[in-house]
Amino acid sequence: MECNETRRWLVAHLDGELDLVHDAGISTHLQTCAACAAAARQQSALRDLVREKLPAFVPPPHLATRIRAQLRAEKESARPRLSWWPSWNMAGVLAALCIATLAGYQWGGRRAQSADFGAEMVSSHLRAVMSDHMLDVVSSDRHTVKPWLSGKLDFSPPVADLAADGFPLLGARVERLEGQTVAALVYQRHKHFVTVFIWPAATGLPFAQASHLGYGMRAWRQADMNFVAVSDVAESDLDEFVGRLRAAIAQ
Amino acid sequence: MPNAYNLARWLLRNEQDAEDSVQEAFLRAYKAFGQFRGGDGRAWLLTIVRNVCYSRLRKNKKVNLHDEFDESVHGMTADEPETAGPMQGQVSSEILREAMSALPEKMSEMIVLHDLEGMPYREIAEVVGIPIGTVMSRLARARERLHRELLSLLEKEASHGV
Prior knowledge:
The complex is a heterodimer. By secondary structure, chain A is α+β, with helices and mostly antiparallel strands. Chain A has helices spanning 3-14, 20-32, 34-53, 61-77, 90-102, 109-130, 142-152, 235-250, and strands at 137-138, 169-177, 180-189, 192-200, 209-212, 215-222, 225-231.
């Protein structure tokens, strides 16, 4: 491979974004060409410099509050729903179809039915994470959290701490979603949070797994309760979390 | 939210505009929740943020709708003069930020998305709406330009004895 060609692919090579053939060609060239090797060192030094020292702009605290208030207002101004299963409104369907087509998404009826349901969960999780109000009861002790929740709800949700599995319990809050009072347990995974919504299994679960705005969701039924876990952790972490929680509750 | 704000702030270079745009983007995203199916949510959200920011920039006539350079013509070549790269120790975050601010939006967004957000080329291509090959060449040009800006800032600083 020649110098000109090497320089063209150098950034992609250093970013690990090249196909194997080009990548191997560049590696070979860099071993024999001192000038290109120096350019490569300079490139990676610059990249590391940016990654280490370029400060990200941090949003001011009032922005989260503003967005939260706006989303809440939006939620409240939405048409009232009588059940978990939204009744269709023709204008809404048309608007949704237009946006779905524009965005290039394939439309699936079943997913569509569950959209509001999932959106409610995600927006509750988002509002809580963005605001300071994530927990009504702060405790990693299930013997504190469970009685507190039972006192606020007309059911007693199962509570488990998963600190040993890398998902410590932070506490809980009570939420009202689509006319239903639900328990929300909050767990932490490194810098991310997992909210688990729990309510009696009188209503159906519209999906087993879904995703909105980068937030993964897993829904299941266990011990006569419906569970929905919402988080922006990696999909594999979310699956692991659900597996651990189900096992802990089953005990 | 922080990554949305960071992108908006880099594109608009103004706190108030960035805040308004992020808020607008969240509202748009919220209303379109039902239309989002799988895939990467961060890429989806940042696409919306970027769209909001660019319409604002266009309204303010601050940005050319078309790319300012022809990437195929201005490829990287090996015959550029070799300059010593700035050493980690002597470059402060402030200088780095100042150098970044000198880049046109279409370049700085590459560095923000790739180096600050850690996005792979494929996702950047999705967010910006350009082919992956263009992401590669534009990112390379952005880094090259950033390097030049850094060197000139460092030179200025040295000559002023700051």
